[in-house]
Every structure is written in C-alpha cells, then in structure tokens.
From TrEMBL:
Belongs to the binding-protein-dependent transport system permease family. LivHM subfamily. GO terms for biological process: amino acid transport. The lineage of its organism: Bacteria, Pseudomonadati, Pseudomonadota, Alphaproteobacteria, Rhodobacterales. Keywords: Amino-acid transport, Cell membrane, Membrane, Transmembrane, Transmembrane helix, Transport. The keyword Transmembrane applies. This is Branched-chain amino acid ABC transporter permease. It comes from the Bacteria. Pfam families: BPD_transp_2. Signal peptide: none annotated. It is a multi-pass membrane protein. InterPro entries: ABC_transp_permease, BCAA_transport_permease. The chain crosses the membrane at residues 16-35, 42-64, 95-114, 190-216, 237-258, 270-298, 310-329. It is found in: Cell membrane. GO terms for molecular function: transmembrane transporter activity.
Length: 343
C-alpha cells in the first residue's frame, strides 16, 4: 500500500507539469485553432528565467581580505553578492536562497510579453492556414528558441536548487497513519503539486467567473457570432495566448529545482503534452487537466521495477498505449465535445 501511495504522489507531481503545459496548449487550440508546437519552448524559457534570476541575484564583487592569506601568502579574495551588500547578510542571503520563487515575479511579465510578441508577430499570420503549416512554423520557432538558449547557457543541465527550507523530504506516511519513514516524499515536489493546483484553479476561475473569461469561452464555441456582436475577439485571443504563455512559463520556473534546466527540456515535455491534449479531448480544458494527471499516474506506476520486470520498457510507451486505446474507443478523447475528431 505504501508503494502505491508513493507512486500516486510521483504521478501527481509529473502529471502537474503535463496538465499545466496541456492547459496552455488547449487554450491556444480552443481559442485560436492553432497547433502550437512552440509551447514546450515556453516551458523551457520559464525554467531558464529561474536560472537567470538565480544567477542575477548571485552576482558578486571581489575584495581582498588582508587578514587572511592563501598558501602563497597572498590576501584571500572574498566574493560578496551585491544583494548582501545592499540588504545586509541575513536578508541578502534569504533573497538568494529564495531566488526560484522570486523568479515568478519576473516570469509573469516576461512570459506575457513573449506570448504577445509570438502571437502578434508570427502566429496571427497562420490562423487560416492548414494545421500542417502551423505545425511547421511553430516547430521551427521552437528549434530557434532552443538553439538560442543553448548558445547562451550551454548544452549541460544547470542546477537550480530550491530554497533550503524546502529541500529534503517530508514523512508523508505519518499523516495518513503509516509508521515513520515508510512514505518519504520531497518537500519541493509537494510544493509543485500545490502550486499547479492553485494555478489551474486560478485559470478556470478566471474563465468561469469573469466577463472577459465568458467572452473567451463564447469565442471558443462560436468565434464568428461573438465577432458579429461587436466584440473585438482578436484582442481577447491575444490576451489568452499571453496567458497560456504565462502558465507554461510558471510551470517551467517551479519545475527547475526538480529537473535541472537544459535546452531540450521543452521538446521532452511537448510531445507528451500533445498526447495529453488529444487524450483529454481537443479544445477541452477539463479534459487536458484530467488527462495530464491520469497519464502522469499511469507513467509513474509503469516505472515500478515490479512492472518493468514483467513488461520491460513499458514505462517508455505506456502513455502512447493508453492514448491509442482511448482514441480507438472514443476518438474525441475523454472529455472532448461530440463531433470533434470524429468526422
């Protein structure tokens, strides 16, 4: 039982990333009808915003400590971060330690700007083009962004640690009645799941309970009718694209301590996230979230040694097998609208 609970926790952690990326993909496809293969690159950019903020806050100047010498008798060089000089040792050290959460404040405007520029500068020219054209141009954009990151940050993963207070593990089993040290789970992974749940809930609340969200949902259902009512739906869809970029970016920021950012991480998640979107139902926001968590949990269970000993390599293909089965039985996906992908 403890192994099952641990795999569910692992699945919720991985499913959180799938759900957040798939949510943005579905927002873009449902509103704009665009298959955005550059969405994984937005997740990657978010992770590297966390890297950049951490490096920025760690910038230091060097002074010589005349009271200490190295083995050659020269004064010891001491590096002092600027934030420590400006805010004092305790506050400065805390700011550096919490650089990943602080990166959220930078990621929101940066990702909104990236999404706006991407939509206005490129995507809007492909609204009425075939999906094949959209895939080619957005996939090409993803490669360009990936190579830019590789050029400036290198090809190796960059460690981006979580705050010291959230490192280590939590005895989750004690909370649900197990013996101590039976179910141990990392603090930050639990934080990531909670953050994902909060972000997903915020997006749904915005779409459900605001006038702007109501117009977006109406536009997803019937864009032409909304336009005939005198509403500038294009501006709202641009905002929606920017919002989807922010969601993907924030998912990347918070995922940085879990998986050290590297230039190809966006592509790693992109394909799986598209599978999640199709399984959940093209254009279905609840379907994208539900499928993300479902496939994350299934992938987690498939990675168990007991399962792999019976079916070697099943952890690499389980998501695709489930997708095939679901789409054969229900082509529109789990929660897709009737008629979508069923012609």
């Amino acid at each position: 039982m403890d192994a099952i609970i641990l795999q569910i926790l692992n699945g919720l952690d991985k499913g959180s990333a799938y759900a957040l990326i798939a949510l943005g993909l579905t927002l873009i496809f449902g509103t704009l009808g665009v298959v955005n293969f550059a969405h994984g690159a937005l997740f990657m950019i978010g992770a590297f915003i966390a890297v950049s903020v951490q490096k920025l806050l760690s910038l230091s100047y060097v002074t010589l400590d005349e009271t200490r010498t190295d083995f050659l008798g020269n004064p010891v060089k001491v590096e002092t971060p600027y934030v420590v000089e400006w805010f004092g040792p305790e506050v400065g050290a805390t700011i550096i330690d919490w650089s990943v959460p602080i990166a959220i404040l930078f990621a929101i405007p940066i990702m909104a700007l990236v999404g706006y520029v991407m939509e206005r500068g490129l995507i809007k020219h492909f609204y009425k083009r075939p999906h094949a054209d959209q895939i080619l141009v957005t996939f090409g954009l993803a490669i360009v962004l990936q190579e830019i990151i590789k050029h400036y940050y290198g090809a190796n993963p960059i460690q981006t640690p979580a705050p010291d207070a959230l490192q280590g593990s939590f005895d989750f089993g004690v909370l649900i009645g197990f013996d101590p040290n039976v179910i141990i789970y990392p603090y930050w992974r639990m934080v990531y799941f909670a953050f994902a749940a909060l972000l997903i809930g915020s997006v749904f609340a915005f779409l459900q309970f605001t006038t702007f969200g109501m117009v977006v949902r109406a536009g997803m259902a019937d864009r032409e009718t909304v336009g005939l009512l005198g509403i500038n739906i294009d501006k709202r869809f641009t905002f929606t694209f920017a919002m989807a970029a922010v969601v993907a970016g924030l998912a990347g920021v918070m995922y940085a301590p879990i998986n050290s950012p590297n230039y190809h991480m966006g592509m790693d998640f992109l394909v799986l996230s598209f599978v999640v979107v199709v399984v959940g139902g093209m254009g279905s926001l609840p379907g994208a979230v539900a499928a993300g968590f479902l496939l994350g949990i299934l992938e987690s269970f498939a990675s168990m040694n007991e399962i792999k000993s019976i079916l070697p390599g099943i952890d690499q293909i389980i998501i695709y097998l489930v997708a095939i089965i679901i789409l054969l039985a229900r082509p529109r996906g789990l929660l897709g609208r009737k008629g979508v992908m069923e012609e």
